Amino acid sequence: MKFAVIVFPGSNCDIDCYKAVEAIGQPVDYVWHTATDLSDYDAILLPGGFSYGDYLRCGAIAQFAPVMGEVVKAAEAGKLVLGICNGFQVLTESGLLPGKLMRNRNLKFLCHQSELEVMSNKTPFTNQYSEGEVINIPIAHGEGNYYCDEETLAKLEANGQIVFRYANGGNPNGSLRDIAGICNERGNVLGMMPHPERAMDQLLGSEDGKRMFTSILNAWREKNGAAVNG
Ligand SMILES: NC(=O)CC[C@H](N)C(=O)O
Q1: Which atom of ligand 1 lies closest to the CA of 101?
Q2: Whether the complex's predicted ipTM surpasses the cut of 0.85
Q3: Looking at ligand 1, which residue's alpha carbon is closest to its atom 4?
Q4: In angstroms, rounded to a whole number, what is the distance separating the alpha carbons of residues 32 and 140?
Q5: Does the active-site annotation cover 85?
Q6: pTM of this prediction?
Q7: 10 Å Cβ neighbour count for 127?
Q8: What is the mean pLDDT of each run of 10 residues along the chain (230 residues)?
Q9: 20-33 per-position pLDDT tens digit
């Protein structure tokens, strides 16, 4: 299964994403924001960082990068697209996910471990977790305060599109209903503020992020008829 890690000017978690894919033994390329062909790839990772200096609003400029047209096409074709932190912001700005990420409630950049509840393991990104499981994944953001209108929120809840919530009263940023990550209706595009690629090894405090990457691989193998553990 081949992964692309999209690199915008200002991305800074691209190497972590690349290493996370290497850790699950799969081929991965860095793909520069000017690229216009993603047909080689089975999954697209939009990493964290400060694309285009976070000017206007995080992710607002990145939506116009040439590669984003291809990311939209990949999503429409049913490929798996995962946006982490700035990647989540890019997905909302480009309309692949509903809602927006606003400044954190306390207007501060926050960087610490956070507990997340896995609300759904019926997505290609979470099939290796249990529903209701609480996992430890770090956050590092200034604009993670998820907001959407009432109608959208009701739809997200009804369709099971809220995939992660901050657990145990630990909402760091004021996001609606403690939302930490959502997916699209079809389930092949997921955005989340916390960083699973920084939770790949107990040495760094947690390895709970690893199952996100093995979930993606597992989903792809199931879909493509390969042995799940092969
Ligand atoms: N780690 C990140 O991706 C940070 C995203 C964005 N620059 C923010 O501060 O919200």
Answers
A1: 10
A2: yes
A3: 141
A4: 23
A5: yes
A6: 0.97
A7: 17
A8: 98 98 98 98 98 96 98 98 98 98 98 98 98 98 98 98 98 98 98 98 96 98 71
A9: 999 999 999 999 99
Report the alpha-carbon distance of residue 11 to residue 96 in Å, rounded. Answer: 19
Structural domain boundaries in the chain? 3-223
Contacts of 197 (CB under 8 A, 6+ apart): 13, 16, 17, 19, 20, 47, 84, 209, 213
CATH class given for the domain over 3-223: alpha beta
CA atoms lying within 13 Å on the CB side of residue 67:
22
- The candidate with the shortest Cα–Cα distance to 197, out of 51, 30, 20, is 20
The answer to whether the beta carbons of residues 123 and 183 sit under 8 Å apart is: yes
Tell me how many helices (H) and strands (E) the chain has.
5, 11
Question: How far apart, in whole angstroms, are the C-alpha atoms of residue 127 and residue 120?
Answer: 8
**Under 8 Å between Cβ of 172 and 159:** no
Distance of CA 227 from the midpoint of ligand 1 (Å): 37
Q: Among residues 85, 93, 141, 183, which one is catalytic?
A: 85
Residue 33 annotated to the active site = no
Q: Are 32 and 74 in contact (CB under 8 A)?
A: no
For residue 217, which of 42, 58, 19 has the smallest C-alpha distance? 42
